[in-house]
User: Which sequence fits this backbone?
């Protein structure tokens, strides 16, 4: 039971961007991983470790953890966990610019989507696929994947995951020169990120918003830059506080 509670806590810390704290919790569980007798808990730990490595830019490590988790999931026929791990593996490959591998793994995840109890988790898979197509300049495919993600997010109230979808959709619109609509999606992302208390994603969305405003509204652009500076100060103060607590 205690390991399930720890996994839930790590998920919460990950969702609000407290990566250092989440990794500290995972490290504690990792020491016990060989004696945990609940396969789903073990696989959740592998998935979380891969996701945290992605967030830290450690893509090679993320790929290795996801692959190792997939081996274990296949061995005990945990198809739902295979969906999650293929999504994590595809995401890691995407961030590492291995686009062909990313597409293959994300499509493998979608092939296993029938086994997921919570349909809302498909939002992330479609968002990563949309980001992949965006990088390949396949705008129509990107729009289709991201529209599917938004429909899922609206139906399942998946606010945490929907932040990334709005960010990516805004990037697509910006790349197409539709700066007004891009601003609208990045404002939505900022609002959701604030509700989720994730300052890192709020900052990313605000930065992308500033790029569109620079093209359309000088006054709002300057205001956005001020807000971004204030937010960066808050992030810095929180990081300093985390470091002080960990010493």
Assistant:
């Amino acid at each position: 039971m205690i390991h399930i509670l720890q996994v839930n806590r790590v998920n919460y810390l990950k969702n609000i961007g407290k990566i250092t704290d989440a990794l500290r919790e995972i490290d504690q569980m990792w020491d016990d991983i060989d004696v945990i007798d609940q396969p789903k808990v073990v696989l959740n730990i592998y998935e979380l470790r891969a996701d945290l490595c992605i967030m830290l830019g450690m893509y090679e490590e993320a790929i290795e953890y996801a692959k190792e988790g997939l081996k274990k999931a296949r061995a005990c026929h945990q198809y739902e966990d295979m969906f999650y791990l293929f999504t994590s593996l595809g995401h890691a490959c995407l961030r590492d610019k291995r686009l062909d591998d990313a597409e293959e793994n994300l499509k493998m995840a979608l092939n296993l989507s029938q086994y997921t109890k919570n349909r809302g988790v498909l939002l992330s898979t479609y968002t990563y696929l949309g980001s992949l197509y965006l990088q390949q300049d396949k705008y129509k495919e990107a729009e289709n994947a991201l529209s599917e993600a938004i429909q899922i997010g609206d139906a399942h109230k998946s606010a945490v995951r929907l932040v990334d979808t709005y960010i990516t959709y805004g990037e697509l619109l910006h790349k197409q020169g539709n700066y007004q609509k891009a601003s609208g999606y990045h404002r939505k992302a900022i609002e959701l990120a604030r509700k989720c208390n994730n300052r890192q994603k709020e900052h990313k969305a605000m930065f992308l918003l500033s790029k569109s405003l620079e093209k359309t509204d000088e006054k709002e652009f300057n205001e956005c830059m001020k807000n971004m500076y204030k937010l960066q100060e808050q992030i810095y103060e929180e990081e300093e506080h985390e470091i002080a607590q960990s010493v």
Summary: Residues 118-247 form a domain with the Serine Threonine Protein Phosphatase 5, Tetratricopeptide repeat fold (CATH 1.25.40.10).
